[in-house]
């Protein structure tokens, strides 16, 4: 079919576009439109292929294959953000529930990829309005609620999943989400208990996330003995060093956004610049420096690595700008991350 299309007089781009526009593409199936667009793409006519897809979607919103065309057309835009906007504008027009659901999953994933987490939450909520029992949507929405500070909503989402029949993988993800939520709510004992139930399974899965969470939890609570035990466990089982853990924490309160989003493939949060300005054996000395640096206008955390208290500055500026700002304020430091 493709060879025939390309050989048949090499129809000019404008003529081909007008043919589809005025010949009534509502009667053309998704498979046929795919053939035509493929021919255009092979000729390097990206914009024309996108226009062809758009015209077909506008006239065939009830077609069960509409989400397939959406999925193929979106990458022809210039960026992930434009792809998300393109799908968002057309998804409400889809009349087939399955197509609308699949397009929604794609759209939420794009929002997660580009860091538009609030928009992703709205999409998951819309999906759940039609499919309230969908555990994947609930699990992903719960993580996004937690990382955007909607802790109470995340707790409710966890509660709505409790007691359901879930697959082994979803049970694992739910327990992690419950632990992260409990930690954010200050319920460290419950968070620790949940994480402990997953420790052996996480080893089988080769997932250091559970042990890392326990290490952060013990370090934050100054439980030095337990933190060191978990540190040795991470080194023995996963070959992770204390330095790697500090970098992974990105200087943010546990659970950090990076950890919370670890259950969402492709999701990201903007990575901060992490600069260490001091390291002390006694916490009170670290707190004294942290207070001084904080008073100078910097965002400061104290990280307990088990053998030292590190005073760490976080910034969204580039590394050199952060270091220069600190030097100007009288606090020389060195880059820890990225």
Can you walk through the features of this model?
By secondary structure, the protein is of the alpha+beta class. Among the domains are: 154-269; 272-338, Alpha-Beta Plaits, CATH 3.30.70.1070. 63% of the residues lie in helices and 7% in strands. It is built from 18 helices and four strands. α3 packs antiparallel against α4 (46-59), α8 runs antiparallel to α9 and α10 runs antiparallel to α11 (168-184). The longest helix has 17 residues, at 97-113. The radius of gyration is 26 Å and the shape is globular.
Task: Give short descriptive properties of this protein.
338 residues, alpha+beta, Alpha-Beta Plaits, four-stranded antiparallel β-sheet, 18 helices, 4 strands, 63% helix, globular
In short:
The chain has 338 residues and is of the alpha+beta class. 63% of the residues lie in helices and 7% in strands. It has 18 helices and four strands.
* SS elements, strand count: 4
Helical content (DSSP H or I, runs of 4+): 55-70%
Which structural class do the helices and strands define?
alpha+beta
Radius of gyration, in Å, reads 26 Å
Oligomer: single chain
- Rough shape? globular
Largest sheet: 4 strands, antiparallel
Order of helices and strands: HHHHHHHHHHHHHHHHEHEEHE
What is the spatial order of strands in the main beta sheet? 2-3-1-4
Average per-residue pLDDT, rounded, comes to: 75
Percentage of residues in DSSP E strands? 5-15%
Number of contiguous helices = 18
Low-confidence segments, given as residue ranges, are 1-27, 246-270
The span between the termini is: 51 Å
């Amino acid at each position: 079919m493709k060879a025939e299309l390309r050989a048949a007089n090499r129809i000019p781009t404008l003529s081909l576009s007008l043919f589809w526009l005025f010949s009534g593409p509502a009667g053309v199936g998704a498979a046929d439109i795919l053939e035509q667009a493929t021919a255009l793409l092979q000729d390097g006519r990206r914009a024309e292929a996108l226009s062809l897809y758009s015209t077909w979607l506008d006239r065939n919103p009830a077609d069960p294959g509409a989400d397939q065309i959406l999925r193929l057309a979106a990458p022809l835009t210039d960026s992930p953000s434009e792809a998300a906007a393109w799908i968002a504008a057309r998804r409400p027009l889809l009349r087939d529930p399955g197509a609308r659901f699949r397009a929604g999953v794609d759209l939420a994933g794009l929002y997660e990829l580009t860091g538009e987490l609030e928009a992703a939450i709205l999409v998951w909520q819309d999906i759940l309005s039609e499919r309230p029992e969908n555990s994947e949507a609930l699990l992903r929405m719960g993580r996004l609620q937690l990382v955007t500070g909607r802790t109470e909503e995340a707790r409710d989402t966890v509660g709505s999943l409790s007691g359901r029949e879930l697959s082994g993988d979803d049970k694992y993800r739910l327990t992690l989400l419950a632990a992260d939520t409990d930690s954010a709510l200050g319920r460290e004992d419950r968070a620790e208990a949940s994480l402990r139930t997953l420790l052996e399974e996480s080893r089988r899965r080769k997932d250091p996330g559970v042990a890392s969470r326990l290490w952060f939890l013990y370090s934050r609570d100054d439980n030095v003995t337990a933190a060191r035990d978990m540190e040795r466990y991470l080194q023995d089982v996963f070959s992770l060093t204390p330095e790697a853990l500090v970098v992974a924490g990105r200087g943010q309160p546990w659970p950090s956004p990076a950890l919370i989003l670890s259950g969402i493939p492709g999701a990201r949060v903007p990575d901060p610049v992490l600069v260490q300005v001091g390291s002390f054996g006694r916490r009170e000395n670290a707190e004294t420096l942290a207070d001084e640096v904080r008073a100078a206008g910097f965002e400061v955390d104290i990280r307990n690595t088990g053998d030292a208290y590190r005073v760490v500055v976080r910034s969204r500026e580039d590394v050199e700008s952060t270091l220069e700002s600190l030097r100007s304020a009288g606090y020389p430091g060195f880059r820890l991350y990225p």
